[in-house]
């Protein structure tokens, strides 16, 4: 029998707090929380598909550029993994099982696919969390810039020049590319970015407060998270009509902030009282 949502969340927390958290495992557990019907069988099927794709790569590749080209030819050209503007409007674009099924997704999820397929085939690969656009790096992350190759899975694995990467960063931030932006993305930072994308998607759709709530809950299971997430969770409960539970969490949050912001704590307690009054 497959675990229920509570069990998926427990597994997510255990993986996130492990010595070496695995991005794919966390993404698949996130997918199971989003869609409990996925089940253990769906998670296993996703691993099998990643293994199958890795097995399709040519044998004996050496060097970062041949790896990047081979991934682009397989995943981008042959399999059709890529993204477009409409994919930003779909929750499925942030769920790894759905990205594997639809072969469409946001840059960060497509990058997770690229990285994992490459890793299983033995490639030197890592994620690069450019502001506003996640990409994939091939080669030694600590090597000279000229020995690294960047690819954009959202564009079918197009190889990026330094000028291309600069344009992505300037377009997202208005600021120039900095060398620190090319560092390998940490697994938990990648998962936080995925969850933040989901929270942003749900925030634009008040009718999907259920999605916002489980995304916040998963953020709260990570080893480090902003305390303000507890306020966000309380507000979501009130928004969903769970007035007593939301008011209780507002009071708890007020107790946390009171030592440093007594005025803010008083405001939050008034909001808790207003939430309780909505029951009358």
Written overview of the protein:
This protein is of the alpha+beta class and 280 residues long. It has 12 helices and 4 strands, in the order ααααααββββαααααα. A 4-stranded antiparallel sheet has the order 1-2-3-4, with helices on both faces. Helix 1 packs antiparallel against helix 2 and helix 8 packs antiparallel against helix 9 (209-221). The mean pLDDT is 93.
Radius of gyration: 21 Å
**Low-confidence spans:** none
Largest sheet: 4 strands, antiparallel
Residue fraction in strands: 5-15%
Strand order, biggest sheet?
1-2-3-4
Our measurement of the CA-to-CA distance between the termini, rounded to an integer number of angstroms, reads 42 Å
**Mean pLDDT level:** 93
Order of helices and strands: HHHHHHEEEEHHHHHH
Shape: globular
Helix- and strand-based class?
alpha+beta
The total of beta strands comes to 4
Helix count from the secondary structure assignment: 12
Helix content range? 55-70%
What is the oligomeric state here? single chain
């Amino acid at each position: 029998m497959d675990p229920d949502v509570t069990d998926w969340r427990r597994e997510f927390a255990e993986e996130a707090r492990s010595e070496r958290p695995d991005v794919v495992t966390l993404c698949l557990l996130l997918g199971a929380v989003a869609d409990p019907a996925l089940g253990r069988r769906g998670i296993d099927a996703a691993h099998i598909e990643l293994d199958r794709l890795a097995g399709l790569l040519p044998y004996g590749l050496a060097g970062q550029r041949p790896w990047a080209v081979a991934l682009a030819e397989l995943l981008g050209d042959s399999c059709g993994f890529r993204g477009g503007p409409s994919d930003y409007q779909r929750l499925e674009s942030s769920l790894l099982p759905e990205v594997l099924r639809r072969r469409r997704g946001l840059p960060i999820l497509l990058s997770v696919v690229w990285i994992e397929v490459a890793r299983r085939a033995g490639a030197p690969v890592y994620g690069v969390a450019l502001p506003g656009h996640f990409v994939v790096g091939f080669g030694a992350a600590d090597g000279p810039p000229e020995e690294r190759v960047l690819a954009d899975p959202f564009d079918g694995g197009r190889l990026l020049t330094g000028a291309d990467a600069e344009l992505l960063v300037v377009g997202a931030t208005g600021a120039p590319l900095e060398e620190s932006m090319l560092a390998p993305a940490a697994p938990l930072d990648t998962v936080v970015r995925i969850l933040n994308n989901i929270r942003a998607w749900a925030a634009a759709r008040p009718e999907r407060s259920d999605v916002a709530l489980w995304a916040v809950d998963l953020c709260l299971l990570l080893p480090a998270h902003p305390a303000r997430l507890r306020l966000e969770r309380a507000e979501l409960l009130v928004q969903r009509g769970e007035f007593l539970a939301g008011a209780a969490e507002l009071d708890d949050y007020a107790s946390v902030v009171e030592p440093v912001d007594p005025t803010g704590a008083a405001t939050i307690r008034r909001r808790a009282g207003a939430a309780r009054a909505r029951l009358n």
